[in-house]
Write a structure and sequence with these properties.
The structure is a homodimer of 228-residue chains. With 228 residues, the first copy, chain A, is mainly alpha-helical. Helices cover 65% and strands 0% of the residues of chain A. In chain A, helix 4 crosses helix 5 and helix 4 packs antiparallel against helix 6. Chain A binds a DNA duplex (30 and 30 nucleotides) through helix 1.
Chain lengths: 228, 228
DNA sequence: TTCCTAGACTTAACGCTGTTAAGTTTCGGA
DNA sequence: TCCGAAACTTAACAGCGTTAAGTCTAGGAA
């Protein structure tokens, strides 16, 4: 037959066109700029045609962001190979901030605007899977750091540690985005600034006396000590 | 005459009514819920009447937030009396977070939504005045901490330190607001959580070896050492 | 007292938004 | 040849911020 298949494929194609048009608008001008009518005009369909492929505007944007956000996940997968949890935390923080600054509109939508709890069943991202879910990744790393005795003894709760670190990086990112043009904040260069945020966070959670150098030798030493 | 005065007073009254009606909507349901038509209905005027008192919708909301935000300033004025900069930083962080959680819609508007650079001449708040501008307050405190030699030697830039600390607190606040109902984050109790964020930030910026106890004796010791 | 003008306010409208009900077109299968 | 389903369009609704034009009121001047 191959007939139904063709139908499905064609429908998938239109869906793709919608997403591409929406992405272009979204990346260039943000959520507000994406209107059903503009998308429709871009793909030369009527506005209502979009509703045959997506429940509503939110569904379009969610589909868009979900797929784009998987790009962050692929970066995290590489970082997962870093053995030392502290080093991994640093790398993840840097990657997270970098991604956010490169995709400000995505970031804004995902982490800076309140949602009706984004139904997980229609999302591409597997919650809790540390290869797809950034929070799960940090949680895992925080847990390892605790296990290996690297953190201050009062910080014995991985969830809490993850939330602290996430807060610091997210705060930096979101302030930078929202207040980048305010005359009353004299922003320091991005690279130096985010490095400082990460360094202060790491110092703040590390057990005192632990050398915070980013060297492999230090890492292995720490791991040995943790085993003992 | 007293005639023009009455006219002015009457106009001021209507202005006040508009702001009160807008505040009610804003506090209860957020920015989106405030529509010119709803405000008008609440005060029993036509929607266009509002434009005789405010340039546009944004002006209404800005006037609203400006006055409400001065309440935070009064709390900061009390905290300014704390002598030890580190202790002051802690207190300010706590007050900031508390204010944000109590006035989420104000906070969201002021710090979580991008603005066309909010023209300072039509604002009530004096930028740079640490009694009115929260950022100026933190900047001043960070500067004192550096002067007194309390911070890590590499953190010699008050602006940078202020931005780091602000990031951490703001990050915590804004994540909590945006993602409070997400099933994939197991938020720790608010009090414990914000205390931990502040503590980690302080530890992270403090010169190693400096006791981070919140005791007056420690404070005076530190100040003596700084003079030496 | 009568007329004029300034200011406060309203009515009606414009162009925009997301969304829906109803109608049209197309095309494979019976 | 006709049917039915799917894809798509047209027209419309209710809402939004905002504006142009008109009305109404009341103090000041003649």
């Amino acid at each position: 037959m191959g007939l139904k298949e063709r139908r499905v494929r064609e429908k998938e194609e239109v869906r793709g066109k919608i997403l591409d048009a929406a992405r272009e608008l979204f990346v260039a001008e943000g959520y507000e700029a994406v209107t059903m009518r503009k998308i429709a005009q871009a793909i030369e369909y009527s506005p209502t045609a979009i509703y045959l492929h997506f429940r509503d505007k939110e569904a379009v944007i969610n589909a868009l962001c979900d797929t784009d956000f998987l790009k962050l996940a692929t970066r995290f997968r590489k970082i997962a190979e870093v053995a030392d949890p502290i080093e991994r935390l640093r790398a993840a923080g840097l990657a997270y901030a970098d991604f956010a600054m490169r995709h400000p509109n995505h970031y804004r939508l995902m982490f800076m605007t309140p949602h009706p709890p984004h139904s997980p069943e229609e999302s591409v991202i597997e919650v809790g899977n540390r290869d797809q879910d950034a929070y799960a990744f940090v949680l895992w790393t925080a847990g390892e750091a605790i296990e290996q005795g690297l953190l201050r003894p009062e910080l014995d709760d991985a969830e809490l540690v993850a939330q602290i670190v996430w807060s610091a990086i997210h705060g930096w990112v979101s302030l930078r985005m929202t207040k980048c043009n305010e005359p009353w904040v004299d922003w320091r260069p991005q690279k130096r600034s985010i490095a400082a945020v990460i360094e202060v966070s790491v110092r703040g959670i590390l057990r005192p006396g632990t050398p915070a150098v980013s060297a492999v030798s230090a890492t292995t030493k720490r791991q040995k000590r943790a085993k003992a």
